[in-house]
Amino acid sequence: MDRTLVLVRHGQSEWNLRNLFTGWRDVNLTPKGVEEARDAGRKLKEAGLEFDMAFTSTLIRAYRTLDLMLEEMGQQDLTVIRDRALNERDYGELVGLNKDDAAAKFGINQVHTWRRSYAVAPPGGESLRDTLARALTYYVQNILPQVLSGKRVIVSAHGNSLRALIMVLENHDPDTIVERQLQTGAPLVYHLGADARVTEWHDLGGGDPSPH
Fold it and tell me: Which chain positions carry the site (Transition state stabilizer) (predicted)?
């Protein structure tokens, strides 16, 4: 049985380019982000991958990335499910701030704690633990059953919401998952056994290794 799960962080967004905290702000892809998404689709096609269904967040940078990948693959008629559980981490009062400006406003150590700790949330926002709780619940209840039934599934989402899935797939703990970097527009291909554990996985590469 083919139990294939592909995870893709969206292509570069306009606020990635400007080094701003984005969170749930709905910003579009840059021209580079569009090309990253198309390149991801081409790589998936070259790898011989086809999908039975797709999941994405409700934010345009994620679902547009998915649309562009599927267009390159000739799979525009694929069933796509959008859900806010896969949205990026909510950065609260940090949203819209340049990361350097945030460090000047709140202090570099405090901003580092908000960005890199597992359980500490910025004012009015979510911690990584909060984000993982909602995304992982959604994965277990909605995505994983489809994969275990033999469907080939692709998920286009965000650095932090995808960390929830990767935490389980790659056996990370709270200390190591905060350091797991995801490139934009770089598909991660996982093959699962009947017990939901990964039997093999590989990174198709490319994209921008910026952390958030």
Answer: 158
Selected from 3.30.420.40, 3.30.365.10, 3.40.50.1240, 3.40.50.10610, the CATH number assigned to the domain covering 4-155+169-190 reads: 3.40.50.1240
| pLDDT, tens digit (0-9, with 9 covering 90-100), for 130-154 | 999 999 999 999 999 999 999 999 9
Q: Is 10 a catalytic residue?
A: yes
Q: Is 186 left (phi over 0), alpha (psi -120 to 50) or beta?
A: beta
170 catalytic residue (yes or no): no
pTM as predicted: 0.94
pLDDT score, position 206:
55
What phi, psi does 55 have (nearest 5°)?
Answer: -125, 145
**Contact by Cβ (8 Å): 89, 131:** yes
Residue 1 has what pLDDT? 74
Strand 53-56, strand 198-203: pairing: unpaired
The C-alpha atoms of residue 182 and residue 48 are separated, in whole angstroms, by 23
Q: How many CB atoms lie within 10 A of CB 76?
A: 10
**Cβ-proximal residues to 184 (8 Å cutoff; 6+ apart), any chain:** 9, 10, 11, 12, 16, 33, 36, 207, 208, 210
- Indicate which residue of 10, 36, 126, 158 is catalytic: 10
